[in-house]
Amino acid sequence: MKRLGAVVCIIFAVMAAVAVRAGTILGWGETATPQASLNNLIAISAGGYHSLVLKSDGSIIAWGGNSYGQATPPAGTEFTKIAAGLVHSIALKKNGSIVCWGRNDYGQSIPPDGNDFVAIAAGFEHSMALKRDGSIVCWGRNDSGQSTPPDGNDFVAIAAGGWHNVALKQDGSIIAWGDNYYGQADPCDGNNFTAISASEHYSIALKQDGSIVAWGHNNYDQAVPPDGNDFVAISAGGEHAVAMKRDGTLVGWGADWAGQASPPDGNSFTAISGGLYHCLALKTNGSFVGWGRNNYGQADPPVGSDFVMVSAGSTHTLALKQDGEILGWGDNESGQIDTPDGNDYESVAAGTYHSLALKQNGSVVGWGNNSYGQISVPSGSGFAAIAAGSYHSLALKQDGSVVGWGRNNYGQANPPAGNDFVAVAAGRYYSLALKQDGSIVGWGRNDCNQIITPAGNDFVAIAAGFSHGLGLRGDGSIAGWGLNDYGQTDVPSGNDFVEIAAGGYHSLALRGDGSVIGWGRNNYGQATPPAEKGFVAIAAGENFSPAIMQFCDYVLAGDISDDCRVNSEDLEFFAEQWLLSGGPANFNGTGGVNLLDFAVLTGNWLIDCYLEPGNPACVPK
Hints:
Helices cover 4% and strands 39% of the residues. The chain is mainly β.
């Protein structure tokens, strides 16, 4: 059973390790894959730098670039279709109306009124929809005529490219309009087409005989489709395309510098979507896969449920397993994820291009970039904690003193004297330390007041971002200081926080109930954590965030709040359900919520407390 623990694993800083139950790592932010595995999906759409999926219950999930809110879909379960543009998104509702969100500089996110729409499409900066009567409406940017659709009511399908559009007519012919610099709006003749797709500067179409034709820009051979007549679906990406064959396999062609034209093997696919630099495919079991641009894969965690610590660098991630082994993933330009062998490690710290680890014997090892000596670790075995900054490193000794090494152009590697320190954190060009008396000291660069720490001696944890700092107080509240250009120091109110993490320009906090909140820069969704409970450790990178989630070893009736505990929160919810019939508070299967259910709840409450005596979750509030 999951038990929450205060593990502070932060960008460029790792506090002294606190034991937690092993868990699974999830990632979010700059990535082509979502926060967690998804299933029960019925539709997918890949945009410029974000992705959308539609679940069978009619709700939408989004991830990826979110600089204009394009990956923040509306709540609700009434959606039937989705479309992702460059930096905006569209959804069709069950009642035939349209909603849009994301960038709106050309009005592309202001849909027309009405509830007679049956299909939608999103271009770079314009949008279009097909009406039930077969006519087309467009809105948004129109400098190339892309939002001036042709007359008529005999259209059956639409596709929006960068600055042009394509439409399929009832007779199987194709019409196109808008930008035609590369001939992308000059479709092939004929009336034997069954599907269309459009991208930035080219278009593709599927013929009745299962073959594919393409026209427009061809700088990466994206307009040279594969031979064959067994294709059943097509999708045009930025300068690449993907097609699905009758046997459920996928084929890609065109630009492949990020792997976007190299789909996965297998024959269990049912739908495809090509984005600007990445692709998505829906599988028969309702799950999906993504491939293509993923920056460095730093938000793609490894499979497993035995992780106890995670640390995020600028573009790479380190994780410590329960057996003391280290795993690394993401950018490896400087060898920063070439982790050392062995299973005798107890802490990890990821810097910009280098990594550190603390061994069980108290010694420190380093690997990766060493341009400033940042991995030239001090000898000895008396260290208790480590922190990795951009190009400098820190270590806390068992006697309470701090040592620093690496780049020192702002004095960031020259810690203050003394032996009363209990934790360290390293930012880009500055450093922080927590003292035994609960106060915080800072040194190094101070252009954003990042070393002007808040007064007080009630702090229990610290975190250092690029140029901002966070402090967790003993009462569970958070303080922030330093650079605030994205709101990264506008800390949330409340006193139920148990852990903090500071990223490049965003911040995270873990609540006692296992949920995570994020704030600050969110251009890649890095400050939008999954809306779930069960997290036990968090970390923040430059544009992404990994975290450890634990799942219940077993489930007791009465855990209504789904936090793997039977506690006072469940009692409060039970009381609300007392007068209702059925629902999650009906534990004994009688159909109603009654005294027997209350007996089950209180009985398992005592069992849960007995399993872990003294846990605060067992104490009624």
